[in-house]
Amino acid sequence: MPEPSPAPAIIFKICPAALWAQAEAEGVFSGAPVDHADGYIHFSTAAQAQETAARHFKGAGDLKLVAVAAETLGAALRWEPSRGGALFPHLYGPLPLTAVLWVKDLPLGPDGTHIFPDLG
Known about the structure:
The protein is an alpha+beta fold. The protein has helices at about 15-25, 35-40, 45-55, and strands at about 10-15, 30, 40, 65-70, 75-80, 85-90, 95, 100-105. The chain has a single domain, classed as Alpha-Beta Barrel (ADP-ribosylation fold). Helices cover about 20% and strands about 30% of the residues.
């Protein structure tokens, strides 16, 4: 039986800019409305982020892409099946801003899809 592949070191949160500004002012991100409704903060891997943007943020401007060091989140971070059975990172608790590696704008391109920075 093959060993499970290791979890990615960096996970990503797509967030409205105003909500992220509030998190920066408060020193912690406690989640977007969808996160509160589901009971955890939704994240994506680099391989999942573009589809997440297309499905859940289609046409939305003024977004931030937040890169987070997964290993700093401890046991509160769980990998659970979601879209199509793929494992997605879910954080059960607030996101401390000390875990954030960087925050970048996630603009819309001329075709209405989001333009991602290199996530490699």
